[in-house]
Amino acid sequence: INTRWQILFDRSSYSGKTLVPAGEFINVKLAWKLMRQLQDPLMLCTGFLPPWCADLAGSCHFLFPLECREFFTSCTAFGISRALHSMQQRVQGSSVSDRPTEVRIGRIQREKIRVSRARVLPSAIRALELYASHRSMLEVEYYGEAGTGLGPTLEFYTLVSQELQSAKLGLWRDSWGTSAQGGDADMDTPAPKAADPNDGLGQAPVQTGYIRGFHHICVARCTNCTTITFPRCETHTCMLTKRMSDSVAQCHRCEVQFEGGGTCEHCKTEGSLSLEWWMLSDEEAAYLHAAFPSGQSAIDHILLQCPECKSVNFPGTEQSLIINRGGQMTSMSGRVMHEQDYRAVTRHVTHSCSNLPLTKVPVRLQCEECAIVARLVGGTPEAEEGTDEVSTAGESDRYVQAPFGLFPAPIMESTSAPVLQHFRFLGRLIGKALLDQRNLDLPLSPAIFKFMVGQELTFQDLGTVDPQLYKTLIKMKDLVDERKANSSADLKLDGCALEDLCLDLTMPGYSHLELVPGGKDIPVTGDNLEEYIDLVARTTLVDGVEKQFSAFQAGFDEVFPMRHLQVYSPQELELHIRGDIEDWDVDTLRASIKPDHGFRDTSMPIIWLMNTMASMDRLQRRLFMRFVTGSPTLPRGGLKRLNPRLTVVRKEAEAPLKPDDYLPSVMTCANYLKLPVSVHPLQYHAGPNPRLTSVCNRSIPLRVH
Questions:
Q1: Which residues are 273's β-sheet partners?
Q2: Mean pLDDT confidence for 671-693
Q3: DSSP state of 540
Q4: What whole-number distance in Å separates Cα of residue 573 and Cα of residue 411?
Q5: How many whole angstroms separate alpha carbon 389 and alpha carbon 297?
Q6: What is the pLDDT of residues 66-76, one digit of tens each?
Q7: Of 45-49, 451-455, 584-588, where does the model show the most confidence?
Q8: CA 496, CA 490: separation in Å to the nearest integer?
Q9: For 42-80, b where at least 16 C-beta lie within 10 A, e where not — what string?
Q10: For the whole model, what pTM was predicted?
C-alpha cells in the first residue's frame, strides 16, 4: 500500500511516490541474520541457504536495506566465483589490517572482445550471442585503437545504448513517429523537433579508423561463367574502393568508375557482371598470386567468405590453390578439402566472426588478374570502419522521442522477427551490464522496471508510458460513467461530440493496428466506448508488448534469471542500470576527487577545477563524465562511488611546447584527468572554462588514452 496507494484511486495518475519513507520498514535483526547466512562460505559454495532467505528477500524486500539486498543478489544470482569475490571484497573492506599474504580465491575471469566503432550495434549483438552466458567479465577494445580496459568498455555500453534508441529500428513508442502516422490528434502529443537522445548529448562522432591489413575492394563476377575481374584505376595503380551505390564503384582519388550489369568479356553474356564487395587481406592477395597453379591461365576455384565481415579466404595448400571439381574443394593431389578445415585459419575483420560457417563461392580465377591484385594491393587504401555499407553522407539518423521513457511500440507481424531479435539482445545487454556493474545510458520507462522486478502493469502505469493518452482515456471513462447514469446523455469530449471525433477501433497513433478484426471500419460510439478504452489500455501494456517482453526476458535469463531482481524496487533497479544523477557542490567534489602527482587539495588548478565542475549544468556534467570515464552516467551513490576514484594529475609540458599549448587529456581506464598548469593566473577564473568545455564537447581534436 505504501508504494502503490494511488492505484486505489482510479482517476489519479500513478507516480510511484511513497507515503512513508522506505527506511521505516527495515528490520535490523532480520538484516543482520541474513548477512550472517551470506557470509558462510560453505553455504555459498553448496547453494544451500535456508529457504527463508530467498522467500523474505523476494516477497518482503522492504525489510532489508539496499546494501544487504545487493550482497544477497551477488551471492545467489551471479555464480560461485562472483559470490566468493563479493564476500572477499566485503571482508577486505571491513578489515583494518592489510594481509598481503592472504590467499584470494574466486577471481573473476576476463574476456576481451574487439569491435568496430562504426558498426558497434551489429558487433555487440554478435558478441553477446557468444558471451552472454559466460560468467567472465567482458572487456572491449576497438579496431585501429590501442586502448583497452575500463574506459573503452564503458564507452561501448554507452554507444550501444544510443544505437538502440535509433528510430529506424522500430523498437519504441515515438512521440514524433506516432504523430506522423496519422493517429488521432486528441490522443497524440504534439510532434517535437527531431533531436538526438540524452538531453542533447547525442551520438558520439564516429572516429574513422583503418582496419590494418584489410582492403574493402570492388569485384566484378560473371553470374554465368563465374569469372572474376578486379576493377582498377591505372592512373593511381589501385583497386576501386569507394562504394557509390550497390552497382557503382569509384576510385578513392579520382572519378574513375566501374558500373555493374555489363557484358562479360569471356563468355560474352550481356548484363551478367555483378558487383560484389570483398574484405581482402594483404596475406590472401599475396597467396592468391604465389599459389596460382603454374602453367595454367585460369582455374575453377571455390573461395570461402565470411557472411558477416565479408573477408575472403582462398583455400589451398602450401603449393597450390584448390580446384573446384564437381562442387568439391580438391587439392592438386586429389585430396578433398572441407570448409571446416579453414575456419580456424581464416582471418576475419572482427573476432566475433570466429568459427562462423563460411560461405562457399564458386569462381573462375585468371592468372593475369591474380598477378594484378598482388601488384595493386600495396597502393590500395586500407579499409575504413563501416565501409561495408553504402555511403549515406548527409543523411541524419533520427532518434526516438520518448520524453517519458522508452517503452515498446505495439508490434506488427511483418516486423516482429527483427524487433524480437533486438529485444532479446537488449535483455542480454542489460543482464550483462548488471553482472559486470556497468551503467547503460538507456532512459527506459518506469513500467519496464516494474516488469523486470515481477510486478504486473496496471491501467495507472499508462500514465508513465503516455500521459496524454492516459488523460484522454480518463476523460472517456468519465463519459462512460455519465452514459451509465443517463443513457440519453450527449457524450462530449472537450466540448466535441464523440461521433465527431471520427474514432474507430484502431490503436491511437498506430492506425494500421486494429484492436479487433475489421476495427478500422467500426466507429467508436457510446455503446462500445468502454470496450475501446479497455482494448487501448490492454494493447499498450499487455497484448501489444507481450512478445517483446518475452524475448527480453529470454535474453536476460541467458545471463542470470530475472527472478533474482525481485529483491529490488523499480526505482532501485533503475539506479543500478542507469546510474545516479547528482548535483555537484564544492564539498562533494572535495571528498570525491583525489589530487596526485604534482597537485594537492590547495593547488590552484584543483580549486579551479572544482569550481568549474560545481557550476556545470546537467548536460555539461554528462559531457564531462563521458570525457573522463567513457560513460556519461555515474554509479549508484554518485561521484564518490566512482571506481577507480577520479584522480587529477599534473600534465607536464615537453619542450619546446608550453603548458598553454596543451589541452586536458584523460586515461579513461584509470579515471585519470591530466591538467596542464597554466602560467597565467587569469586562466583560473570562476565559471566554465572554454578549454575544458571544448575537449568535453569534442569540438577540438583531443588525445584520449
A1: 222
A2: 65
A3: I
A4: 26
A5: 34
A6: 999 999 998 89
A7: 451-455
A8: 10
A9: ebbeeeebeeebbebbbeebbbbbbebbbbbbbbbbbbb
A10: 0.71
